[in-house]
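Data availability (excerpt). All sequences and predicted token strings are deposited with the supplementary files. A representative entry, Alkyl transferase, is shown inline so that the format can be inspected without opening the archive.
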Amino acid sequence: MNKDLLKLEFPCTIALDIKIKGNFPVIIESGTVIHPKVLIDSSFGPVFIGKKCIIEENCTIKAPNEQGIRINDTCIIEFRSVLESYSIGSGTRVSPGCFLGAGSRVGEDCKIMAKTYIEKDISLPDGTVVYSDGKRRILDISLRVRLKMKGPTEIRTQVRIFPLFQFLSKEFRELCILAIRQGPVPTHIAFVMDGNRRWAKHMNLEPADGHSRGFENMKYILEICYKVGIKVVTIYAFSIENFKRTKHEIDIIMDIGKTQLTQFCSHGDMVDEYGIRLNVLGQKSLLKPDFLELIEKATNMTKSNTRHILIVFVVNKSKDGKLDLEKIDETTLDQHMFTHGCPPLDMLIRTSGVQRLSDFMLWQCHKTTIIKFIDCYWPDFNAWKFLPLILEYQLSSFWGKLRI
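Structure token line:
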């Protein structure tokens, strides 16, 4: 490698917490995934980042003002990343909580999400969408003071406008959770997290952005489940259908999955708070060795936890496997299922409005399992769509006891 230049020739992954510092330009090839908390600091500059790269949470990329950072088209800049003195290409999405330094140049048709701090004297071209940070109703006025707005730039409100309303909404949600905890809740609930790609298409974003948002929403829903008192949560993470997509999209899905698993292993705040034991089931042999290593690390790290269980199904179909039909009965089938030892499935939820189970947990669904098909994409599935389903379960349990 040239000592005066750091160049990553092929799409690759820059691992968690890596620090790249020196007096040399940095060139990162298109399709590269930069994992959370990476520091790239080129005191010489510039830093070139290719198309369709993903810069994940809490990354910091620095370069001298006169050289700057060049981020090519259709990249994704994830939560709370800091980029000083840079330009971003057309179609890039800047996620919430990022910092856009003074003098930055923004390409056409970009989306700047909520709570992004934008320095003064940044010019936004036609087609830019700036989402509100939810702090003040006069956001459009304050932004126009800070920004040189030209053309039909659009300012959208993505979240609740008034902070008081946000506060009351959160408090009301917690109150609802507390009330629901007083009644019977499902012991075991499963999710088919469908609709990430269609959500991204609907939002005019890349499929990778939909998958990333889907993983973030998964953590949000999991926390609600555990707060409500649900002991076992099963999610369908990677289906065999995922492997029929383009190699680029498959790699992105796997990279996002590895990132989430890495955070699961390293941060552990949610794991420790709720005492979660992770169990990954399915045809794991189809996954790459580095992914399998992360799975083993995460399962070993949580194997002593007993309060809650998270089951992740990967590449599973109910038709897989061979059976000797003359030697099996109901008990034999149950004992040889991946989910042997888990409580019966009380509720199965599939988002996106598609009314099929995709060969997921067909055996585990019994006559009392509540199956719900929700007409919204997974990234839009929130507490106000989920908690009424738990209430419906409680009402069905109540009426069931009355009939007895």
